[in-house]
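In practice, a research group might receive sequence data for several interacting partners and want a quick structural hypothesis before committing to experiments. The following worked case mirrors that situation: the sequences arrive first, and a predicted assembly follows.
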Amino acid sequence: MTGDSRQPQNEYVEAAVQRLLTEHTHIAEQGISVSWRDQRLLLCGEVASQQRREEILRLVTEYFPDVALSVDIGVLSAREPAEAEELS
Amino acid sequence: MIRIAAVGDVHMDKDVVGRYRPALERLPERADVLLLAGDLTRYGTVSEAQCVADEFGDLGVPVIAVLGNHDYHCDQVSQVVRVLTDAGITVLEGTSTVLTINGIRLGVAGAKGFGGGFAGRCASEFGEPEMKAFVHTTQSIADRLGQALREMECDVRVALTHYSPVPDTLAGEPLEIYPFLGSYLLGQAIDSAPTALAVHGHAHAGSERGMTPGGVHVRNVAHPVIKQAYSIYHLTVDAPSAA
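A structural hypothesis for the assembly, expressed as tokens:
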């Protein structure tokens, strides 16, 4: 027996969250994957700052208050590269 | 040898100003030029462009950029380009620039690019006007990129795009969205000239390394892919022949 994640309306939620993250004027994140995992919506990806991670969580919670979230969003490193690649 | 630093998809706004600067301080010791592979901003506003200018202006090496799809969102492209240009950043769109580095002429041709997919699984200029316009847009951008690459008088050529010219560097992205991530037409344009390296961004979940059918090295430098402030590529170049 599968959970709600297989029900078609949940696929619409998945699509709606993905579009919200891209099209909302304060987010514009296209790099977050959205998928169902054991009846929870998993947000996965990397963003440029902790502030953007928090904005995403706040927005999704605001628009979809009844959806349980699992979050695996990291903040990208901006460290200096250790080495160069030689191409010839 | 030419040392090329590159990063794409930096998506600058006030919250990330200053994040790249520590890694950029030693850039002139490590690279001859910095390429920015589009999606410099989140929505393409003038204030975000100013953040790009603050972060990537006055680095001590030439900075060459193309715009990405995010940079078009607010329909302020000309203002964004002006802010970047005023900060000394060269912005390419179907155009090229040639730098002389230690006597070697490095030519960089750039264009944002667009989608359409890859050979055997691509969109065609057929059917509804919207579909024809979509493919025609990519074809026309690719034509200008190819012409810019071929017409440069230089010792080594580099192509700079936002969208991908090959599927190799999309590995990791869902197959279903490949047509929105790039086009083989860009690869064909790159292969129409003796290009040494093609750099792009856009595919955050893609992978770094690829090659065109013509054997040109392709690197996806989207920040989420390289996971560092920039990557550096060393291009070995034959000494220019005496005039």
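Before designing any experiment, note the following. The interface with chain B takes residues 25, 28, 30-31, 33, 45-46, 48-49, 51-52, 76-81, 83-88 of chain A (CB under 8 Å). The longest strand of chain A covers residues 40-47.
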